[in-house]
Design brief:
Shape: elongated
Number of strands: 9
Number of helices: 4
Radius of gyration: 23 Å
Distance between the termini: 65 Å
Helix content: 25-40%
Order of helices and strands: HHEEEHHEEEEEE
Largest sheet: 7 strands, mixed
Strand content: 15-25%
Structural class: alpha+beta
Length: 209
């Protein structure tokens, strides 16, 4: 006699598919958020490099600078964030069709890598939004040199403005030589946080929005 080969019933298969669907619905959003958080490490690493370059320049010249070339700040290509060492619209171009970087001695920042990520309207990579120094709701920080309210001496701040997901808002980080306290406000993602000099601070955490 032949043995009867038993398989899965249609109901059993449907139950398995339903379980997989539920697990996927739970896991995928968390994975996307984790992926976006990992992209934020670029901003934190490059802002620390910017801070180190600024401090080294200050130690040698006894002043701060708002020029990327003068302090020697040039992050690796494929950058999702635009970086601002000082005020002004003079940014090192990373949009050339040949992939070549176009830098001037007067540049006060670095564009996001438009050659890599392109430019689009609407989101995510809108050159006008990313390559413009953003408002900073937590510290009202501006890119460049300012007077430290605590020490009454000169201080410096830098900004990173990037796109880590697919919505229209951007991810904003700042760093400063001054010790700062983030504003206690509902619009501030670092509400009330103490931020020592040299530590990146998230002004607008796009991952949580």
């Amino acid at each position: 006699m032949k043995k009867m080969m038993k398989g899965f019933t249609l109901i059993e298969l449907m139950i398995v598919v339903a379980i997989i669907g539920i697990l996927a619905a739970i896991a995928i959003p968390n994975f996307v958020k984790f992926q976006a958080r990992s992209k934020q490490s670029e901003a934190k690493a490059n802002l620390k490099a910017m801070f180190t370059a600024e401090k080294a320049f200050s130690a040698e010249k006894d002043r701060f600078s708002t020029l990327t070339g003068e302090i020697g700040f040039s992050p690796e290509r494929n950058n999702r964030y635009a970086y601002f060492v000082g005020p002004g619209a003079g940014l090192t171009k990373r949009s050339d069709v040949t992939g070549k970087e176009v830098a001037l001695s007067t540049d006060t920042g670095i564009e996001y890598d438009q050659f890599k990520y392109g430019g689009a309207t609407p989101s995510p990579f809108v050159p006008g939004d990313l390559n413009t120094a953003p408002a900073t709701p937590c510290t009202t920080t501006v890119a460049g040199i300012f007077t430290d309210a605590l020490t009454s001496g000169p201080a410096w701040s830098g900004i990173a403005n990037g796109q880590v997901d697919n919505d229209s808002t951007t991810d904003i980080w700042t760093i400063s030589t001054a010790n700062r306290v983030a504003a206690s406000a509902t619009t501030c993602d670092s509400s009330g946080a103490a931020n020592p000099g040299g530590e990146p601070l998230v002004e607008n955490n796009d991952v949580n929005r």
